[in-house]
């Protein structure tokens, strides 16, 4: 069995509920916006809705490892959840998939929640409370978990969440370098790239093997005006670079190879783009962990990213594994 994929992340439970456009207007919520709020504000919004919410474990890196696990790659995650109903749901969801964590639920703590208010046009307005996820720090990093992994994926959201989360990132990188585990950082947000640029350039990029970002994230991190220029700049700073560009696919530099992987569009009707980048990241790293060359790993990643946008939600059914196998042949 291949060495697996481990991740350091902020565990979240997605609470998804349908609302009317008037619901947002009455509360001065801009459609499609994202903001951090406290749990009181979140609870008030949820209690004002009338439709039954749908609950699912979520978060960017969570989606990535779920996709990698689908392909038979053993996965683990490092992150904190509380001992509330949401924490039990999150851990059970991943335990049912065989994905484990060295971190037990934290007593007397609340699990992070992303409240998604979805209007009839499919637009998601999100209000997030990270709760106990903010308490993850260097002492929570388990060396044996990282050692058992071919790749360590770090969620860039942790860069903006305070000194404790940043200490966990730096500790994870340190352990990975000691244990012959390669490190990939998914930038995850343009805000993180803008506000933590100096930290990433100084403390992160020189020590990792791969940086991953979409077009605006890469441009912000590289301080460039086009994704091509950003790709070129980042390629001089990191051994492997992945810049996803939506319908144009992805630019990838891996070692001595540079490729453009087109987006898979055949017979694809876009339903919901949420989680496409997460799927691309998880499937790409899974392919590399399984020993595929970069072009085949990227082709499989492109295929399953397309499968995600053709459905609602970021989690793929087990039948998607056959689409991946066909793509990497």
Can you walk me through this structure?
- The chain is α/β, with parallel strands linked by helices and 329 residues long.
- The protein has one domain (4-10, 58-108, 134-328): UDP-N-acetylmuramoyl-L-alanine:D-glutamate ligase, CATH 3.40.1190.
- Helix content is 40%, strand content 21%.
- It is built from 13 helices and 13 strands.
- An 8-stranded mixed sheet has the order 5-1-8-9-10-11-12-13, with helices on both faces. Strands 3-7-6-2-4 form a 5-stranded mixed sheet.
- It starts with a strand and ends with a helix.
- The mean pLDDT is 92.
Q: What count of helical segments does DSSP give?
A: 13
User: How many structural domains can be distinguished in the coordinates?
Assistant: 1
**Poorly predicted segments:** none
Q: Strand order within the widest sheet?
A: 5-1-8-9-10-11-12-13
Total number of β-strand segments?
Answer: 13
| Structure class | alpha/beta
CATH architecture: 3-Layer(aba) Sandwich
Radius of gyration: 19 Å
CATH topology: UDP-N-acetylmuramoyl-L-alanine:D-glutamate ligase
Quick one: overall form? Answer: globular
Q: Work out the helicity level.
A: 25-40%
Task: Give the DSSP E fraction (strand runs of 2 or more residues).
Answer: 15-25%
Name the CATH class.
Answer: Alpha Beta
Order of helices and strands: EEHEHEHEHEEHEHEHHEHHEEEHHH
């Amino acid at each position: 069995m291949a060495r697996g994929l481990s991740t350091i992340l902020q565990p979240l439970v997605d609470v998804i509920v349908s609302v009317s456009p008037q619901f947002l207007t009455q509360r001065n919520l801009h459609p499609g916006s994202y903001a951090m709020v406290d749990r009181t504000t979140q609870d008030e919004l949820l209690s004002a809705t009338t439709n039954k919410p749908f609950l699912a474990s979520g978060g960017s890196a969570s989606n990535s490892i779920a996709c990698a696990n689908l392909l038979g790659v053993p996965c683990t995650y490092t992150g904190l959840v509380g001992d509330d109903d949401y924490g039990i749901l999150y851990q059970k969801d991943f335990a049912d998939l065989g994905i484990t964590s060295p971190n037990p639920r934290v007593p007397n703590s609340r699990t992070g929640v992303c409240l998604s208010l979805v209007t009839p046009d499919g637009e998601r307005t999100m209000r997030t409370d990270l709760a106990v996820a903010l308490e993850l720090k260097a002492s929570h990093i388990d060396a044996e978990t990282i050692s058992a992994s071919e790749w360590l994926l770090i969620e860039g959201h942790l860069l903006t969440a305070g000194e404790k989360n940043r200490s966990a990132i730096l500790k994870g990188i340190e352990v990975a370098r000691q244990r012959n585990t390669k490190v990939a950082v998914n930038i995850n947000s343009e805000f993180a790239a803008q506000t933590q640029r100096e930290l990433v350039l100084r403390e992160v990029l020189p020590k990792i093997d791969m940086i991953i970002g979409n077009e605006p994230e890469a441009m912000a991190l590289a301080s460039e005006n086009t994704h091509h220029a950003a790709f070129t700049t980042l390629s001089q700073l990191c051994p492997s670079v992945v810049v996803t560009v939506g319908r144009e696919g992805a630019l990838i530099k891996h070692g001595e190879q540079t490729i453009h992987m087109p987006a898979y569009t055949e017979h694809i009707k876009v339903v919901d783009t949420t989680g496409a980048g997460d799927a691309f990241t998880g499937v790409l790293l899974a392919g590399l962990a399984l020993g595929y060359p970069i072009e085949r790993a990227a082709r499989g990643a492109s295929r399953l990213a397309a499968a995600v946008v053709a459905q609602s939600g970021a989690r793929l059914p087990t039948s998607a594994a056959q689409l991946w196998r066909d793509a990497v042949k």
